Amino acid sequence: MKILAAGDIHGDTSLVEKLAQRARKENVDLVILAGDLTFFENSTKNLIGPFKKVNKKVLIIPGNHESIATMDFLAETYSDVKNLHGYSVKFGDVGIFGAGGTSKTGPFSFISEKEMYKLLFKGFSNVKDSKIKIMVTHEHPSNSLIEKFLGRGSGNKSIEKAIESFKPDIALCSHVHEAWGIEENMNNTKLINVGREGKIIEV
Fold this sequence. Notes:
The chain has helices spanning 13-25, 49-53, 68-77, 113-125, 145-150, 157-166; strands at residues 2-6, 30-33, 57-60, 81-83, 88-91, 94-99, 132-137, 170-173, 183-186, 189-193, 199-202. By secondary structure, it is of the alpha/beta class. The protein has a single domain, classed as Metallo-dependent phosphatases (Purple Acid Phosphatase, chain A, domain 2). The longest helix is centred in the first third of the chain and has 13 residues, at 13-25. The radius of gyration is 15 Å and the shape is globular.
């Protein structure tokens, strides 16, 4: 399975077009958008449509720039688009679960660390028997290279706990613009900050 994952688009429709064309050229099976699709919810226009024009399935989660309701709206508007917030999907042997929002910054989708863990557990419960498991969040875990890169305790402890408890093969996040592209092995999970330019992931 081939995935294009990106985040922090912030309403940049030219970037969406670029990512959609990359998805087509790379012949990916799935696109994952890890939050902050909008910029303070100014507009949702042309954020999903370009991916649908090239016939791609899309998974989305909210960041801290849009509400959960906005992500639900986008998922309901387009076919083959799902808001993964607190939910999961299976594609053959691959199970994908996630939760969006952040525990420290707004203006939208503020979620406590306790609630974040509950949402991730809910999604994980339905894919725990999958051969390959992928966890998607907007925020990054505490004690990660991303947190160390920032030089302050900015990570989410519940996401770190979820990695330790659920042992996903891959964990995807965005949120920290300065850390786009950072990859590390965290408790045998490959953690990737997918960034605006996106990452191709093959599983």
